[in-house]
Amino acid sequence: MAKGIWVFAEQRDAKIKKVTYELLSAGRGLADQLGEELCAVLLGKDVAGLAAALGEYGADKVYVVDNEKLAEYTCDAYVNVVADLAKANEPTAVFFGYTAVGRDLGASLAQRLATGMVSDAVSVKVDGGQLVFDRPLYAGKAFVTASCAEARPVIAAMRPNVLAINEPAAGKQAEVVNADANTGDIRQKIKEVAMAISSRPELTEANIIVSGGRGVKNAESMKLIEELADAIGAAVGCSRAVVDAGWYPQSQQVGQTGKTVSPNLYIACGISGAIQHLAGMSSSKCIVAINKDEDANIFKVADYGIVGDLFQVVPILKEELKKL
Ligand code: FAD
Fold it and tell me: Name one GO molecular function term (predicted).
């Protein structure tokens, strides 16, 4: 009998990605409703120590595959290991974050297990014993409801920064199962890992984001946004207009064709609030907008709005926030 809601515990450099905790929190509720166990699947090298945190965030069981060949992510090795585990244990569902790794691995696993995959889902519930997902279309203007009536396991990649994270239960331990790794033939070779080093928080994991839009006028003025961000320990984001103009890297773009973020505080400076930008940040807990046009669309989603010139407002805000 198929059993278990599985969460692929994505980690990098032995640090668990936030989306893993989001998936465990959602998975806990689903597992309880279906009367199944919640399992995390943790692959990597020297990662066994991470199992404790997965237990505290809700996992009943953690499958740990700790192996030299899993030190760097390769689809070949990871899919072989996860597919073997799934064939042996027949989970009901396997959840991934809709990240670069989750998209790649989830789709490969679906192909390997001859099942389907729901991609970029933003919610999941149990309805009539089935897992039912919502996924946005047209930058969130419409939603598709998807379910997999027969295929098992159901494979789903959930959009990061959308699902709420439950408070961890300190000291709650998961059963740890050390599983064998049959990585198989690894055809992919990692030659080089290019990483942008920044002292600022990663955009999708940040608690506070300060974002600049076309209103900053030029690349030089993005420094104003960076200074405000640095004063409050925030990540720097931007709109696509800023990226298209070559003022800031695409890696920092928020929106439909950029990153989806959900920080506690999002400060939008000189951003009009186009639907494609809102698609990536409207679930932020508190939105502050600075715009000189009082009719700007961004004010419709903002909790606090400042109508004014960002070149005057941002420096004042920075100095005042520094005092706190
Ligand atoms: P604008 O719309 O030009 O707004 C600039 C704002 O700055 C204005 O509201 C203006 O009043 C204000 N301003 C000007 N000067 C000042 C000042 N001195 N002080 C204060 N305020 C000032 N966009 C994204 O952001 N992310 C995406 O992922 C994305 N994906 C897209 C995908 C598709 C398929 C398409 C078609 C578009 C996409 N876009 C995306 C583009 C989107 O439609 C908008 O063009 C873009 O978001 C506009 O960026 P902006 O708000 O910075 O610029």
Answer: electron transfer activity
CA of 281 to the centre of ligand 1 (A): 13
Tell the residue number behind the tokens 């789903």, with chain if given. Answer: 156
**Which residues, 6 or more positions from 312, have their beta carbon under 8 angstroms from its beta carbon?**
none
Give the predicted TM-score (pTM) of the model.
Answer: 0.85
- Higher local confidence (pLDDT), 98 or 2: 98
Enter the tokens of residue 65.
């595959």
Instruction: Calculate how far, in angstroms, residue 277's C-alpha sits from the geometric centre of ligand 1.
Output: 7
Question: Is the Cβ atom of 241 under 6 angstroms away from ligand 1?
Answer: yes
Instruction: Give me 242's structure tokens.
Output: 């800023």
Please compute the mean of the pLDDT values over residues 195-219 and round it to a whole number. Answer: 93
Beta 175-178 vs 61-66: how paired, if at all? parallel
Long-range Cβ contact pairs of 11-16 (< 8 A, separation 24 or more) = 11/42, 11/44, 11/47, 11/50, 14/44, 14/46, 14/47, 14/49, 14/50, 16/50, 16/53, 16/54
CA distance 121 to 140: 11
